Amino acid sequence: MPYAKIIGSGGYLPPRVVSNDQLAADLATRQIETSDTWIVDRTGIRQRHIADEGMTTSHLATKAAQAALDDANVTADQIDLIIVATSTPDFVFPSTACLVQANLGAKGGAAFDVQAVCSGFVYALTIADAFIQAGRAKTALVIGAEVFSGILDWNDRATCVLFGDGAGAVVVQASAEPGIIGAQLNADGSQTKILCAAGNVSHGKVIGDPFLRMDGQAVFKLAVNCLAKSAHEVCEQAGISLADVDWLVPHQANIRIINFLSRKLQIPEQKVVITVDSHANTSAASVPLAFDVARRDGRIKAGDTVMMQGVGGGFTWGSVLVKM
Ligand code: ACO
After folding, report:
1. Which residues contact 154 (CB under 8 A, 6 or more apart)?
2. 38: Cβ below 6 Å to ligand 1?
3. Residue 20 has pLDDT above 80, yes or no
4. Is the CB of 87 within 6 Å of ligand 1?
5. With 80 as the cut, is the pLDDT of residue 1 above it?
6. pLDDT of 144
7. Closest C-alpha residue for ligand 1 atom 38
8. 41-65 pLDDT, tens per residue?
9. Which of 13, 90, 166, 218 is the most buried (most CB within 10 A)?
10. What's the whole-number mean pLDDT along residues 161-188?
């Protein structure tokens, strides 16, 4: 059975950058109080990229996908599988993956979306790995892309300061050399309420609450414990120890979750990729964006072992171990 190997990556962030001070000034016009100090102390976030009106998830996803294709030196017609992880698709249907396929000028391969919120990218990568190992695809594009700014309640300071928009992508190809060496996915559907956007459109009307809601402290506790357990399990599955992991690329929700996790796993902070300060939480896009940053600045190199971890609404979580 072939391995699925990551042969390229790309990222795209909307050009509009909103600093904490700018956001605080904007919220102040609506009598909502926040500050750079509060946001940095509690989350590590200093700024976020926000999509302008009309800039959709498929737009960001296509830009990231094209960057990954260029990086991998692969043309769109070689892609036989596109998976987009997103909770903010352009439409109910067709899928964002189909829109991306059309934008890239690739036709004929499979294309579909995966919805596992902030764990979406590790879910999608695990599915691509299974397709490739089973011989059902040779070269896949796996994308995490979100416009979370569209589902935020900008009157709720406890959530609206936490998120940003963006997209990250990888090209995964069948290879005789080790690539993805472990994958571990989980969900606990009894925890839907701690993080949700529990609305929809029916009969032409919005039903329920279209905005993201979160019990921050419950998410914090569950995230650290779930990710720590998953890290041990995926290493055991791959027959390696945590000390063999060269880079941890965790979901970028919050610097305090990341610091707790790395301490719990005894992974030194120099081995942890962090982008939450400049990207904020981009949900399914956060892991591939952080991975791409660390590849392009030369930290993640050929031969390295990388652990990617996602956690988010559902409640969902999981880990993928990759040999570069
Ligand atoms: N600015 C200023 N004050 C604020 C803000 C804000 N943006 N948001 C909340 N506060 C206030 C609250 O109103 C409250 O005030 P009060 O004491 O007068 O009632 C006070 O700060 C404390 O509120 P808490 O909600 O208890 O704040 P907490 O210390 O728990 O921090 C946070 C909130 C940062 C969300 C924290 O719970 C956390 O880190 N949770 C992890 C969850 C997370 O990061 N989620 C991201 C998305 S989920 C995911 O991606 C997996």
Report:
1. 27, 30, 160
2. yes
3. yes
4. no
5. no
6. 98
7. 216
8. 999 999 999 999 999 999 999 999 9
9. 166
10. 98
If you compute the radius of gyration of the chain from its CA atoms, what whole number of angstroms results?
18
- Residue whose CA lies nearest to ligand 1 atom number 10: 158
Element housing 124 (H / E): helix 120-133
Give the model's pLDDT for residue 299. Answer: 98
Q: Cβ(219) to ligand 1 under 6 A?
A: yes
- The residue assigned the tokens 């596109």 is 82
Distance 29 CA to ligand 1 centre (A): 21
Domains of the chain, with CATH numbers?
Answer: 3-175 (3.40.47.10), 180-323 (3.40.47.10)
Atom of ligand 1 nearest to the CA of 219: 42
* Statement: the pTM of the whole predicted model exceeds 0.95: yes
